[in-house]
Amino acid sequence: MSPIEAAATLFGLINVTLVVRRSMWNYPFALAMVSLYAWIFFREKLYSDALLQLFFLVVNLYGWWNWHRSRAEMGEVRVEQLSGNARIAWLAGCAIVAAGWGALMHRYTDAHYPWWDGSIAVMSVAAQILQSRRRWESWVLWIAVDLAAVPLFALKGLWLTAALYLVFLALSVWGLIHWNKVKA
């Protein structure tokens, strides 16, 4: 456990709590958290998760803009839902991309647990895009990510991060319930 992991954990707790509450203030904490986790995961040879943090940096900037636009138009951050066909397409896309990404990480890097780490990364990308677009289904994917990530991070000795993802799991359930109630 390092001070950098402790800081990233704290920023993550604040970030996700604010996301559940649909607060625009989640974004500065998200940007700080993902910057720290990019370094942590690279050091641990979890390359998919390290690259994921760079993606999160960009998509959080997009989400900040999109949420701000929604709040300006509607007076609040509006939550929407996917169509049934869109849900199936997102799930199929996740499965296909996860298989491809895992294969690339396995073949071309010295990544630890390339399939597991890669699947978590791909589901996280999809969840973050959906969250940036204010879709309540993002929480379903975050729940799956959290369930898969906790044992991986524990196995790597990232105990604070594993604990953080347990808290993220609880916050994701809260987010799913809350966002489902307020969806348009």
Description:
The chain is mainly α. It has one domain (3-182). 82% of the residues lie in helices and 0% in strands. It starts with a helix and ends with a helix.
Care to give the gist of this entry?
With 184 residues, the protein is mostly helical. It has one domain.
Q: How is the secondary structure organized here?
A:
Blueprint lengths: L2 H18 L5 H18 L3 H28 L9 H25 L5 H19 L5 H18 L3 H24 L2
Helix pairs in contact: 1-2, 1-7, 2-3, 3-5, 4-5, 5-6, 6-7
Subcellular location: Cell membrane
Family: Belongs to the nicotinamide ribonucleoside (NR) uptake permease (TC 4.B.1) family.
Keywords: Cell membrane, Membrane, Transmembrane, Transmembrane helix, Transport
Radius of gyration: 16 Å
Number of strands: 0
Mean pLDDT: 93
Q: Main sheet?
A: none
Tally of contiguous helical segments: 7
Low-confidence stretches: none
| Domain unit count | 1
Identify the notable features of this structure and list them briefly:
82% helix; membrane; 0% strand; NMN_transpt_PnuC; transmembrane helix; cell membrane; Nicotinamide riboside transporter PnuC; mainly alpha
